[in-house]
Amino acid sequence: MTIKIINKSQHALPEYETIASAGMDLRANITDPITLNPLERALVKTGLFIELPIGYEAQVRPRSGLAFKKGITVLNSPGTVDADYRGEIGVILVNLSNEPFVIENGERVAQLVIAKHERAEWELVETLSETVRGEGGFGSTGVK
């Protein structure tokens, strides 16, 4: 698949790190470092603009290393970039740790996964088919 991209950042295009990687790292494209204090959030620009084919989305997801080691995650995870969006890709980061975190220019702040999706049509009905699970949710199937 080929996706049109404009790169207004000073960084290389996102790329897959291995043959089996699902996501490509997104880098901060900022002029000054951003300090995220505990529980603060910020919109971090990437300098990237894309044109996806209809039927695809780009999902902005957290980087596991930042989440585990630093408590930094993507707030609306996954964030969706729709096929008709032409603005700059931004990453909403939040600091869930107890310590300030400084985002530097070029830092890998999130990953981008390209995913196919379907469009649904609703069929209004009076009843739904029954299953063993039924209405059970939110942990109803047990702990293990």
Automatic annotation (TrEMBL):
One Gene Ontology MF term: dUTP diphosphatase activity
Cited Pfam families: dUTPase (PF00692)
Reaction(s) catalysed by this chain's protein: dUTP + H2O = dUMP + diphosphate + H(+)
Pathway: Pyrimidine metabolism; dUMP biosynthesis; dUMP from dCTP (dUTP route): step 2/2
Names of required cofactors: Mg(2+)
Binding site for substrate: R63, S64, G65, N76, T80, V81, D82
EC number per UniProt: 3.6.1.23
Any one Gene Ontology BP term: dUTP catabolic process
InterPro entries reported for this sequence: dUTPase, dUTPase-like, dUTPase-like_sf, dUTPase_trimeric
Alphabetized UniProt keyword annotations: Hydrolase, Magnesium, Metal-binding, Nucleotide metabolism
dUTPase-like domain location: 12-142
Enzyme class: hydrolase
Function: This enzyme is involved in nucleotide metabolism: it produces dUMP, the immediate precursor of thymidine nucleotides and it decreases the intracellular concentration of dUTP so that uracil cannot be incorporated into DNA.
Family: Belongs to the dUTPase family.
Protein name: Deoxyuridine 5'-triphosphate nucleotidohydrolase
Source organism of the structure: Flavobacterium supellecticarium
Taxonomic placement: Bacteria, Pseudomonadati, Bacteroidota, Flavobacteriia, Flavobacteriales
Gene encoding the protein: dut
